[in-house]
Task: inverse folding
């Protein structure tokens, strides 16, 4: 497998970190291609739990080169803190490579993210307030500052000064904030340059050379399909493309290099932040999913919203990503329920939708059409063979496969590396 993409098939937090950790065992490179430190990817190894926000999950293996490609927005302070955190925990991040073309998250991006959300009031997106949206806004407005600019102090200082001329007007006149001091930002960011320099390179070339040698490249998506700026539930999305196409654009590798696209889906579904969510549960069942699934944000600690698996949305994810397979996570959490519901269509104003609706308003006012399947109500966290799963659990998996049209090749039944059933 020369290049494989692993991405979220729902609204994020599907378990991508643990899935990438599994595949990274045989990968030479693990590449983040979009987003920034809005991600929170958890890996559990024995007693140890790692939460990574920026550095790709492949950092856990000494043979693997973690790559932060050009499609990301990088907060240099967070990156250095993550490097220090890993070093303190006896992992070696020295192989990390960071694209010189990646954009920087600046202090004014974080500030703007926070004040814009406050001004939106009840219409807010519920962002992670890490500056992601404002940093991508500047990138597309061609006003961004890139990693490579850090190594040319004069250019860097000029760019910060130009940017702050405008940002300070926005901060003071629109949002009633104090202006930010350009020199303070310049001094802070230039102080990171020496430490970052050894990691910075042309990551597109690095990956192309690796692929030419027959090495294996694994792309690690952040967020999820329904949070995609183009294909998600806009405007309640993130500002990048977590979908498969994003891996191509965000890494500078052509589409022909990709041969597998694995969608990670939870056996139920969750969302953090605002926005439509047809199968959301506001009852005791939802509360149990949240508590049993530990559904609290890795980045912000926010309580995630939870609901039954949505096959309309999952089929959509299969389509927009050309998924070849699905990795189903957290099946163990469903052991607590006597019956399990799955949304197979939506109903709105007398009309049925079995494809993801084109009109956003349908997502708000639709009612899911559920099929109810029997639960298995036994602990499955020690099961390692597919055939040893209770027949109701197998029926649930096969029902999903049948409806979405791609195989579920892996099923995880606990957060640890070995709590996994492989079907291939
Ligand atoms: P990501 O953002 O997609 O990497 O997912 P998160 O790490 O934010 O959230 C997934 C959570 O579920 C983490 O706490 C994982 O340790 C945990 N997890 C992953 N797979 C399983 C599983 O199969 N069963 C259980 N019980 N927990 C899991
Ligand atoms: P991982 O990679 C879940 C959500 C935020 C908000 C919206 C926009 O761990 O799955 P942003 O800060 O990106 O501008 O926020 O996107 N969001 C996530 N939700 N998992 C994530 O990452 C997320 N990253 C952003 O809650 O609704
Ligand atoms: Mg997460």
Result:
């Amino acid at each position: 497998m020369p290049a494989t993409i692993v991405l979220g098939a729902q609204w994020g937090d599907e378990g991508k970190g643990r899935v990438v950790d599994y595949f990274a065992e045989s990968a030479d490179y693990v590449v983040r291609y979009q987003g920034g430190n809005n991600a929170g990817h958890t890996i559990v190894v024995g007693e140890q739990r790692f939460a990574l926000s920026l550095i790709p999950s492949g950092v856990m293996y000494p043979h693997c080169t973690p790559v932060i490609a050009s499609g990301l927005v990088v907060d240099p302070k967070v990156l250095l803190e993550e490097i220090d955190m890993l070093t303190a925990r006896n992992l070696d991040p020295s192989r990390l490579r960071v694209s010189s073309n990646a954009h920087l998250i600046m202090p004014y991006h974080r500030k703007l993210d926070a004040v814009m959300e406050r001004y939106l009031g009840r219409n807010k997106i519920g962002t992670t307030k890490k500056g992601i949206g404002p940093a991508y806004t500047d990138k597309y407005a061609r006003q961004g500052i890139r990693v490579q600019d850090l190594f040319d102090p004069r250019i860097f200082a000029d760019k910060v000064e130009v940017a702050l001329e405008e940002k300070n007007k926005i901060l003071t006149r629109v949002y009633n904030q104090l202006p930010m001091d350009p020199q303070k930002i310049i001094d802070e960011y230039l102080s990171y340059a020496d430490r970052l320099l050894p990691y910075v390179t042309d990551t597109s070339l690095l990956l192309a050379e690796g692929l030419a040698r027959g090495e294996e490249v694994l792309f690690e998506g952040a967020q999820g399909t329904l949070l995609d700026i183009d294909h998600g539930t806009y405007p309640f999305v993130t500002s990048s493309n977590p979908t498969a196409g994003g891996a191509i654009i965000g890494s500078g590798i052509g589409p022909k290099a990709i041969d597998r696209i694995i969608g990670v889906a939870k056996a139920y579904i969750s969302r953090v932040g605002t926005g439509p969510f047809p199968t959301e549960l506001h009852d005791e069942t939802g509360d149990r999913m949240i508590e049993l699934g530990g559904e609290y944000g890795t980045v912000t600690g926010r309580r995630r919203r939870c609901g039954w698996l949505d096959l309309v949305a999952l089929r959509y994810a299969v389509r927009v990503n050309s998924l070849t397979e699905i990795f189903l996570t957290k099946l163990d959490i469903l052991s607590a329920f006597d019956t399990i519901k799955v949304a197979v269509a939506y109903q709105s104003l007398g009309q049925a939708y079995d494809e993801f609706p084109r009109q956003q308003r349908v997502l708000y006012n639709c009612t899911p059409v559920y099929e109810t399947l029997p639960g298995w109500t036994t602990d499955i966290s020690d099961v390692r063979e597919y055939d040893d799963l209770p027949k109701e659990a197998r029926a649930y998996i096969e029902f999903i496969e049948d409806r979405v049209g791609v195989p579920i090749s892996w099923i995880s039944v606990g957060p640890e590396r070995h709590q996994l059933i492989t079907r291939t």
